């Protein structure tokens, strides 16, 4: 029995901030963002979008009624949680109409936890071959106006349906993980934005990539020559490029190195237009690779590097299955181009708007552009969600 990713979906904010506009507003050379970070635009979400609406919309784009009847676990990985107790997975389970006898929970470890969720899902399907697991990575990266992290903000959600006999990717049992107790990026409960030691975090990312990759090769016996592509966690694409260069085997034939670089470029296509989406960044890179590479074929292997500050890293691999291209969209770039462009002033107003609760815990919101679901109000401290068909959930 093979187990892996059967379907993959994506949703992001419906507003777009051009990096050139942000650079001009902040008084810096636009190439600091376009070349220094390899970022061209950011996805911006209003207060009516959160990890629930993004996650539900990403999943809604791939699930049919048969899937909803077979899913018996919903896992949401995030570091943008909306509640210290109730899991976002419970809200999403309800919004999607998944059958009631399902386990729903939320996982956290910075940007790494979606990989842990994927492992959990795979183990569950091994034990229960007829079941399906919905894994969602959903986040809104928010650092603050005119801060070092501001140019790497972004928002989005990846949804993956895990099953036996997958039609996209078969996951392997070659995972190698590493944990280090470090303080490179963290957000205490009392802070709405994270604390970041940027240079230190970059060094840790690259060193954990190097050492985990060495251990992976030692345990698996595989080398870079065994893979057609290598996907990376993408805090910003330029860091992943540094990682790609660090693990490159210079003894490989030039044609192989060129093919790997072409697939790397395909893997950062979407992130260049969206920014950092935390837990979903690695899998957005995977989706971008699959939908933009001109050379991938069934039977080829892909390596993946997951990293979450604090820190946990993991390297694992997957194989493309026959017919995988039929599971992919062909108009994703057009969808990204259809986002509404906004000025820097509008971005500052929309992105940083906060709940204005009255004494009874109620709040209403302006009518912003969203995906398939939106947060329409807070009533008595309860978040009220609505699908575009007008059905209300809380």
Automatic annotation (TrEMBL):
GO biological process, any: acetyl-CoA metabolic process
One Pfam family it belongs to: HMG_CoA_synt_N
Primary enzyme class: transferase
Binding site for (3S)-3-hydroxy-3-methylglutaryl-CoA: 29, 143, 242, 276
Entry EC no(s): 2.3.3.-, 2.3.3.10
Residues annotated as domain Hydroxymethylglutaryl-coenzyme A synthase C-terminal: 245-350
Entry annotated with the keyword Transferase: yes
Organism domain of life: Bacteria
Record key words, sorted: Acyltransferase, Transferase
InterPro entries xref list: HMG_CoA_synt_C_dom, HMG_CoA_synth_N, HMG_CoA_synthase_prok, Thiolase-like
Domain Hydroxymethylglutaryl-coenzyme A synthase N-terminal: from-to ranges: 14-164
Record-linked Gene3D superfamilies: 3.40.47.10
A GO molecular function held by the record: hydroxymethylglutaryl-CoA synthase activity
Location of the active site: 79, 111, 233
Entry similarity comment: Belongs to the thiolase-like superfamily. HMG-CoA synthase family.
Name of protein: Hydroxymethylglutaryl-CoA synthase
Organism: Streptococcus hyointestinalis
Gene field: pksG
